[in-house]
């Protein structure tokens, strides 16, 4: 009896492993059906790679800091400085690579806070729809939805010091309601599914029902929204740094670089245009990925 | 003489209509029914859409609380909804629904699905939890390798067997089965019904079995009750129900079954063609609710609602003609 | 051959998925004569819906037809262009689906939907509203619908399942068709309504002289409604015979097992079912697809695929037991 059980256990572990690989392969297949999503994924991977390995890859990593070289200032793109230099003589390309760090940090940081909080509130409000707790949460959500993110961020940063962290906080405050709304909508439908009712009838705890029965079925739209939101949050971050909030000089930020360079259009166009293109490429990458993520997580057999 | 497990008396379930033209009125899904189920017995519940058979099942399992009337399980009152009942009833009475595709969470694998009821009621075997699950799978003839599979990779019949395994996991005394094989192929149905009968014998289970397939009922039930618009028209032991039905509705239904051989044709009741449509459960006709379609309708049927009469041992009919 | 409305020969259909080609249909042979009513009986996944969808050329884009031919009224369906297919679906063949909520558009009234069907049918004067209304009312009357004018003004959600299915039948027979295909039309309906609907379908089809392909998984329904039955398993026809003959004399082990599984009104318990599962269509065996589950299988069955053989009285079987 013991031997067969041991054998069974080993067999099962092999079975689990096989299943995990199969899931990943299937997910990739579904994702890659859409060519543009693969392009988007490639863009995002390149951006991440550039951000992480910036000190090793960028031609002039020291230009990120307080570097000044007026002799080499405002040089048009050439073979030495592929994207030209700005008024301080700093290589624009190296600074863009570094600025990707701030952008990605903003995206990841904001979502890491907003998704769990918004999601949990949405689960609670959706499951107990009709009760006072649900009404309370949703009305508060409505209020926050009415606040424009940029203006709120301006106020917060005006009161506190303008730093990356503070602008992230400000964006968080206005971003969480969207996830609450999303999860609320899905939970109100899912709570009527028979498998949820079955779990209730079996006597499962509310915690189990919310997090083990309902939440796993919401992950598809949540992840899709997160992918698209990365682009939006980065754009919002760039808007904030455009008006001088967010990271302060000399740390490069994409928005700041655009606003600094805007004064020199159209003659020294490269100072503003390359950072602007960088913003566009990053956002585009995430948006293209979003479609593929949606396909990947949809359960069409 | 086996003891009575479930006793239902005067059960009513009304659903208020909250919007639209009929606001303030009620959908009388169940309007006063009563029956008993003994240990090891199968009560078959038959009826068309709107008859209230599913609502009855849902009341017994506790998805709804009764509007009026009383349900007793092993002597204790279970008239309330599941959330208000004691935990022990949640493991004593289990339910298997019709569509296995929607009763199993697509994001949970077999192991998680089967572990849930065990962990809620503290029934996990700490020494060998996996072995316990494998034994459950074996009881429904599913292979042990299925433990880490997801419902989407199982066929319809296998999913239903998994649902049955889940219902069995807590060693219940009674299982409610709401059309468990209606969406399955005939060969799969045969396998599942066989298994259910085997399990019933092994564990002295009682079943409340709902189906519209009368031929299946013939081979499965101990007693059959036929419902129409929220009330029971006739209850009888299975052979009597099929050989000597007394209620016109029973006769009508039995005459409409598609069969596959001449001998069976001979066993069927003479064909009675129904007239008219089924009335809505909101506007139940006064008098006997079957009076819009009954071929033998009389004046009395439009005035008084007939009461249940016992015409032979365990054979009850609700009709003015008896 | 030319008097056959539909002639399907050795049809193979494959679906492309991430795991490879799923070989659903494995050589389907089927024909329907003028005015003949046949049914395709088989269990879930055997390919009945795929077969009829191939006739109408409404398969999904991942499907391909590597082998086989389909003829409708003598013309090759697989070689038809878009316009010919439109005519085929507009006036040659009509289809009744299992779930009437899927074939009836919830945002249009019944009347407007029936008018569209009549308008595109290629009938004389079909563009005139008065003609459309007249034909629509006539069609509804023929399916015993009470108060046709009021029904035409209603929306689908206001009507019951049985009524919606009767409307689907009316829509498919509103204009003359050579062929009506009904895919499990009564599976979701109550027994008495099912009885009514099937009778209406059968009578109307006979009146118009159309042919009928009825798909069902219930042998009882097939027996009451059609003249000839095709039994299908895992992508091909295993047996076919006129209804009376099939019920008297089942030759293929699958047909026998299927009959056995049906609960009998006379009591006597329930059979054991058929052991095993339907085969994996991804890498199907070269031999008979039923062999792994067949109680009478022998060596030859695993290696070779049996051909259709005539065994007399219009009865054909694909099984090595008979040759």
Cα-based radius of gyration of chain A, to the nearest Å = 24 Å
Strand content of chain A: under 5%
Oligomer: heterotrimer
From the alpha carbons, calculate the radius of gyration of chain C and give it in angstroms: 21 Å
Low-confidence stretches of chain C: none
What's the structural blueprint in terms of helices and strands?
The complex is a heterotrimer of chains A (about 300), B (about 325) and C (about 325).
Chain A: H1 2-32, H2 35-52, H3 54-57, H4 92-127, H5 132-145, H6 149-159, H7 164-190, H8 194-202, H9 206-214, H10 219-242, H11 254-262, H12 270-297
Helix pairs in contact in A: 1-12, 2-4, 2-12, 4-5, 4-7, 4-10, 5-7, 6-7, 7-10, 8-9, 10-11, 10-12, 11-12
Chain B: E1 4-16, E2 26-38, E3 42-46, H1 53-61, E4 68-73, E5 76-77, H2 87-92, E6 93-96, H3 100-103, H4 110-120, H5 129-139, H6 156-168, E7 174-178, H7 186-203, E8 206-210, H8 214-220, E9 223-228, E10 231-237, H9 238-243, H10 248-254, H11 262-267, E11 309-312, E12 315-317
Parallel strand pairs in B: 3-8, 3-9, 6-7, 7-8
Antiparallel strand pairs in B: 1-2, 1-4, 4-5, 9-10, 10-12, 11-12
Helix pairs in contact in B: 4-6
Chain C: E1 4-17, E2 20-33, E3 37-41, H1 48-56, E4 63-72, E5 75-76, H2 82-92, E6 93-96, H3 100-103, H4 110-119, H5 129-142, H6 148-153, H7 161-173, E7 179-183, H8 191-208, E8 211-216, H9 219-225, E9 228-233, E10 236-242, H10 243-248, H11 253-261, H12 299-303, E11 309-310, E12 316-317
Parallel strand pairs in C: 3-8, 3-9, 6-7, 7-8
Antiparallel strand pairs in C: 1-2, 1-4, 4-5, 9-10, 10-12, 11-12
Helix pairs in contact in C: 4-5, 5-7, 7-8
């Amino acid at each position: 009896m013991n031997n067969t059980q041991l054998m069974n256990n080993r067999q099962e572990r092999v079975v689990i492993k096989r299943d995990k690989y199969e899931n990943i392969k299937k997910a990739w297949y579904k994702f890659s059906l859409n060519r543009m999503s693969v392009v988007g994924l490639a863009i995002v991977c390149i951006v991440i790679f550039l951000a992480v390995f910036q000190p090793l890859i960028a031609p002039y990593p020291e230009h990120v800091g307080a570097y000044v070289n007026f002799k080499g200032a405002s040089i048009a793109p050439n073979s030495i400085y592929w994207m030209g230099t700005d008024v301080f003589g700093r290589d624009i390309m190296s600074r863009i690579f570094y600025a990707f760090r701030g952008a990605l940090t903003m995206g990841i940081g904001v979502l890491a806070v907003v998704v769990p909080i918004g999601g949990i509130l949405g689960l609670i409000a959706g499951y107990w729809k009709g009760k006072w707790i649900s009404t309370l949460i949703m009305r508060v959500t409505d209020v926050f939805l009415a606040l424009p993110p940029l203006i709120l961020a301006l106020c917060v940063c005006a009161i506190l010091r303008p730093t990356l962290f503070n602008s992230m906080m400000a964006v968080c405050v206005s971003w969480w309601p969207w996830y609450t709304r999303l999860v609320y909508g899905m939970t109100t439908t899912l709570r009527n599914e028979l498998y949820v009712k079955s779990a209730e009838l079996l006597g499962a705890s509310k915690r189990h029902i919310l997090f083990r029965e309902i939440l796993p079925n919401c992950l598809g739209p949540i992840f899709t929204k997160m992918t698209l939101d990365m682009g939006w949050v980065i754009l919002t971050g760039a808007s904030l740094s455009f008006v001088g909030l967010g990271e302060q000089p000399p740390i490069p930020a994409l928005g700041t670089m655009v606003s600094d360079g805007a004064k020199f259009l159209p003659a020294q166009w490269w100072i503003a245009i390359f950072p602007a293109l960088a913003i566009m490429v990053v956002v585009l990458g995430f948006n293209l990925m979003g479609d593929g993520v949606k396909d990947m997580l949809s359960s069409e057999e | 003489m086996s003891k009575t497990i479930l006793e239902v008396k005067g059960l009513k379930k009304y659903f208020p209509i909250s919007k639209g033209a009929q606001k303030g009125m009620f959908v009388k899904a169940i309007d006063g029914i009563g029956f008993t189920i003994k240990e090891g017995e199968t009560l078959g519940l038959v009826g068309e859409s709107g008859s209230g058979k599913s609502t009855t099942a849902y009341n017994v399992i506790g998805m709804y609380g009764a509007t009026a009337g009383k349900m007793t399980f092993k002597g204790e009152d279970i008239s309330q909804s599941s959330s208000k009942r004691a935990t022990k009833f949640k493991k004593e009475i289990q339910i298997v629904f019709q569509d296995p595709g929607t009763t199993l969470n697509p994001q949970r694998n077999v192991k998680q699905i089967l572990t849930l009821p065990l962990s809620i009621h503290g029934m996990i075997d700490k020494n060998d939890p996996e072995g316990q699950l494998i034994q459950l799978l074996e009881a429904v003839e599913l292979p042990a390798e299925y433990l880490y599979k997801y419902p989407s990779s199982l066929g319809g019949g296998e999913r239903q067997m998994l649902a049955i395994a889940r219902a069995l996991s807590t060693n219940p005394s009674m299982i409610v089965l709401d059309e468990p094989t209606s969406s399955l192929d005939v060969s799969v149905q045969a396998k599942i019904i066989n298994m259910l009968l085997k399990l019933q014998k092994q564990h002295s289970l009682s079943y409340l079995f709902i189906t519209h397939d009368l031929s299946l009922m013939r081979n499965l039930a101990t007693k059959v009750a036929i419902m129409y618009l929220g009330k029971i028209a006739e209850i009888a032991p299975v052979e009597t129900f099929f050989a000597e039905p007394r209620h016109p509705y029973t006769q009508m239904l039995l005459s409409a079954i598609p069969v596959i051989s001449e001998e069976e044709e001979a066993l069927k009741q003479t064909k009675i063609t129904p007239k008219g449509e089924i009335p809505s459960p909101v506007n139940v006709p006064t008098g006997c609710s079957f009076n819009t379609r009954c071929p033998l309708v009389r004046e009395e049927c439009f005035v008084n609602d007939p009461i249940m009469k016992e015409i032979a041992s365990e054979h009850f009919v609700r009709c003015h003609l008896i | 051959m030319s008097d056959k409305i539909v002639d399907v020969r050795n049809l193979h259909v494959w679906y492309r998925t991430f795991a490879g080609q799923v070989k659903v249909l494995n050589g389907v042979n089927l024909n329907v004569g003028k005015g003949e009513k046949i049914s395709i009986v088989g269990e879930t996944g055997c390919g009945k819906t795929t077969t009829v969808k191939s006739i109408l050329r409404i398969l999904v884009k991942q499907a391909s037809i590597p082998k086989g031919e389909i003829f409708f009224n003598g013309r090759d369906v697989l070689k038809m262009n878009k316009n010919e297919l439109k005519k085929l679906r507009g006036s040659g063949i009509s289809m009744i689906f299992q779930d009437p909520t899927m074939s009836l558009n919830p945002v249009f009234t019944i009347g407007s939907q029936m008018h569209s069907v009549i308008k595109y049918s290629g009938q004389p004067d079909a563009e005139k509203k008065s003609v459309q209304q007249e034909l629509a009312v006539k069609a509804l009357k023929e399916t015993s619908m009470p108060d046709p004018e009021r029904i035409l003004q209603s929306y689908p959600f206001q009507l019951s399942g049985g009524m919606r299915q009767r409307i689907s039948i009316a829509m498919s027979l509103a204009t003359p068709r050579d062929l009506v295909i009904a895919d499990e039309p009564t599976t979701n309906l109550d027994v008495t309504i099912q009885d009514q609907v099937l009778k209406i379908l059968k009578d109307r089809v006979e009146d118009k002289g159309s042919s009928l392909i009825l798909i069902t998984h219930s042998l009882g329904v097939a027996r009451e409604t059609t003249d000839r039955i095709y039994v299908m398993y895992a992508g091909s026809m295993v047996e076919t015979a006129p209804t009376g003959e099939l019920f008297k004399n089942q030759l293929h082990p699958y047909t026998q097992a299927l009959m056995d599984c049906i609960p009998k009104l006379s009591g006597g318990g329930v059979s054991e079912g058929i052991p095993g599962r339907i085969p994996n269509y991804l890498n199907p065996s070269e031999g008979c697809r039923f062999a792994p589950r067949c109680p009478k299988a022998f060596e030859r069955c695993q290696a070779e695929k049996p051909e259709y053989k005539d065994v007399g009285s219009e009865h054909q079987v694909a099984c090595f037991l008979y040759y």
